[in-house]
Specification:
Layout lengths: L8 H14 L3 E2 L5 E5 L2 E5 L6 E5 L23 H65 L1 E8 L4 E7 L1
Antiparallel strand pairs: 1-2, 2-3, 3-4, 5-6
């Protein structure tokens, strides 16, 4: 998160922590804040502003194939050699099939992650805007006596009058 350095980092982190908790995030033992929804986990470090989004996707795959081959003991390759070659061919075909399926599921998980990020962007922007407004209000109080605060929700404009 790109939060302006209006206040010292500790105070900004406290404002961010409070806003995230108000939005349903849970505090972890390491101080980060996490929100889990379905297979998506959003984690924010309030000190650094780092955001991590993870989507869990699980898929089990199995493949099976049978084939037949004819081998003659008196001519050509032996039965053992023919069987080994057939096994190797089948194994390569099955591995290729599983690789394609794995790639397809990886692409699906990537699309899911991109969709979650697109949904999350407006909320993260709103959080940054709220933190910035709150930090400006705190800084104004530190500078002197706040006589007037005007906020326009539609335009996002904030006017603070301070008597020094």
């Amino acid at each position: 998160l790109e939060v302006l350095a209006i206040l010292p980092p500790e105070e900004t982190a406290a404002l961010l922590r409070a806003e995230l908790l108000a939005r349903g995030f849970q505090e972890s033992d390491d101080g980060s804040l996490t929100r889990q929804a379905e297979q998506t986990r959003v984690t924010v470090d309030p000190c650094s502003g780092e955001v991590s989004v993870k989507v869990e996707a699980r898929h089990e795959a199995s493949a099976e194939r049978t084939d037949t081959a004819t081998a003659y003991d008196d001519l050509g390759p032996s039965l053992d050699l023919k069987e080994a070659k057939l096994r190797a061919t089948l194994r390569a075909e099955l591995e290729a099939k599983l690789d394609r399926e794995s790639e397809r599921h990886q692409q699906q998980a990537t699309r899911e992650l991109e969709a979650r990020l697109a949904e999350l962007q407006p909320e993260l922007g709103a959080i940054v805007n709220k933190i910035t407004r709150d930090a400006l209000k705190v800084k104004a109080q530190q500078l002197g006596s706040v006589t007037e605060v005007l906020e326009d929700e539609t335009s996002g404009e904030l006017t603070i009058r301070v008597e020094v």
